[in-house]
Write a structure and sequence with these properties.
Helix 10 crosses helix 11, helix 10 crosses helix 12 and helix 10 crosses helix 14. The protein is globular, with a radius of gyration of 21 Å. It folds into two domains: about 290 residues, Amidase signature (AS) domain (Amidase signature (AS) enzymes); about 110 residues, no CATH class. The chain is about 40% helix and about 10% strand. The protein has an eight-stranded mixed beta sheet with strand order 4-6-5-10-11-9-7-8, with helices on both faces. A three-stranded mixed beta sheet has the order 1-3-2.
Length: about 500
């Protein structure tokens, strides 16, 4: 690369430090990022909307925040940027343009970030792989035949490929942690209400969605939490401003933690030998660092909770599509939304209020169960994912499922709807059996890129803590980062 060859040797704070010391200019950093996007994106399809002109305009007046002059990418979901399309990965909304910045984007800009594009997402963030019909699949930089995960797959691929040091993500069932695990990145989901919301629609999935970033370093994630944390006017749920800086907590000694090791997934699933081996290696590492690790079991009715989650999601998506239709002044035409989304919306529109109430009660009970668990332990450790990233195109409904969804989307027969939902919930949660529970409970969780599998693919380990205990997780992550450095682990095929 001709523009600032050392660009990828620094994290976001490192690049900002160079700008502040006038070692490099924001213009040089922007050109370095653009060069890498232009060179690598054709292979990966991570960036689907380029904002180079807006980025160059923003160089004229950069706020003096912690990330002054650092190139950054927005996920094309729940992030309102005035004058720029917010497609949400859907043909229906591909030309919808917000008229004002959302609070999340305002805080990103205030930190000094230079936003130069938007990243690919599955339609409305509804999949754990990033393969929307609108833009096509995003590919994993570690193996382009495989998915980077979802729904923040475009952001993860861009960071892993060295286009930017960090990128925006949101997480409603693992959508930061899943791609972080698949792409060898640090992915942190904050507590419910900790960070600003991304959009005017501030009740995304019953407040199960959390906004943050995917990064290569722990300190970038902690510093970004300092930027994004704090109450938001009008928010459905909002935590008070933190008493201390999350970045400064990384400098404090790590106390001895009571860590619980959970191998059995929350939802019925088959777990690979490598995933189980990885979490046990992580347990050994934590013991070597002075922590106590106990093997535990958690009794949650996974099948029931998965169905309840899907029912709530269906209701939320049905209401969301109605709100979007009202804003756009029309309903989606045939095939402007994908069949799976259409089915989910149909389910939501035909549910009884008693179904939704039952589902929220089930999720509330699961959240209470998790809250009680953290009265005895500081941290819960699991694999992030049950197996290696899937091949592109593998995660698709089979012919029977497609036919059933096609029929039920137009002729909603209640008993068949419930059967189809139960089957869909079981199939999908078997692929993400460790991550959604912490969206349901509202507790913070992170995927830490500690290991590689035998095929040379990243293998993340998940750690979670009680609501509001982000500081505990950040301190543990920083300790693990020193013990098992990962920053220089980059995909070999994308060096040029």
């Amino acid at each position: 690369m001709k523009n600032f060859p050392e660009y990828e040797s620094f994290d976001g704070l490192g690049l900002a430090g160079l700008v502040q010391r006038k070692v490099v200019s924001p213009e040089e950093l922007l050109e370095a990022a653009i060069e890498r996007i232009e060179a690598r994106n054709p292979q990966l399809n991570a960036v689907i909307y380029k904002m180079y002109d807006q980025a160059k305009e923003s160089l004229k007046d950069i706020p003096q925040g912690p990330f002054q002059g650092v190139p950054f990418l927005l996920k094309d979901l729940l992030a309102d940027y005035a004058g720029v399309p917010l497609s949400s990965g859907s043909c229906f909304t591909k030309n919808w343009i917000p008229q004002r910045d959302g609070e999340l984007v305002r805080r990103f800009k205030k930190s000094g970030l230079i936003i130069l594009g938007k990243t690919n997402v599955p339609e409305f963030g509804l999949s754990y792989v990033t393969e929307p019909e609108l833009y096509g699949p995003t590919r994993n930089p570690w193996d382009v035949s495989r998915s980077p995960g979802g729904s923040s797959g475009g952001s993860a691929a861009a960071v892993a490929a060295g286009m930017v040091p960090m990128a925006h993500g949101n997480d409603g069932g693992g959508s930061i942690r899943i791609p972080a695990s698949y792409c060898g990145l640090f992915g942190f989901k904050p507590s419910r209400g900790r960070n600003a919301s991304g959009t005017q629609v501030m009740r995304a999935w019953e407040a199960m969605v959390a906004e943050h970033v995917l990064t290569r370093s722990v300190r970038d994630s902690a510093a970004m939490m300092d930027v994004l944390a704090g109450p938001e006017v009008g928010s459905f749920v909002s935590m008070p401003a933190p008493e201390h800086s999350f970045l400064s907590c990384l400098e404090q000694p790590v106390r001895k933690l009571q860590i619980a090791l959970l191998e059995k997934p929350f939802f019925p699933a088959s777990i690979s030998f490598e995933s189980l081996s990885g979490v046990n290696r992580a347990a050994t590492l934590c013991k070597q660092l002075g922590h106590t690790v106990d093997s535990v079991s958690l009794n949650i009715n996974g099948s029931e909770v998965a169905l309840a989650y899907i029912i709530v999601l269906a209701g939320e998506m049905s209401a969301t599509l109605k709100r979007i239709s009202d804003v756009m002044g029309r309903k989606p035409k045939h095939r402007e939304i994908e069949l799976q989304t259409e089915f989910l919306v149909s389910v939501g529109a035909n549910m009884k209020s008693a179904d939704f109430s039952w589902a929220t009660d089930v999720l509330t009970d699961a959240a209470k169960h998790m809250a009680h668990f953290f009265q005895d332990y500081d941290v819960l450790m699991t694999p992030t994912m049950p197996s290696a990233p899937p091949l592109i195109g593998v995660v698709k409904p089979d012919f029977f499922e497609l036919s059933m969804m096609e029929v039920l989307s137009h002729v909603p027969i209640t008993p068949l709807l419930r059967k189809a939902m139960e089957r869909g919930a079981a199939k999908n949660f078997a692929m993400i059996p460790y991550t959604p529970i912490f969206n349901i409970s509202g507790q913070p969780a992170m995927s830490v890129p500690l290991f590689m599998d035998d095929a040379g693919l990243p293998l993340g380990i998940q750690f979670a803590a009680a609501t509001g205990a982000e500081e505990t997780l950040f301190q543990l992550a920083a300790q693990l980062e020193i013990a098992m450095p990962w920053f220089d682990n980059t995909p070999e095929g994308l060096k040029s």
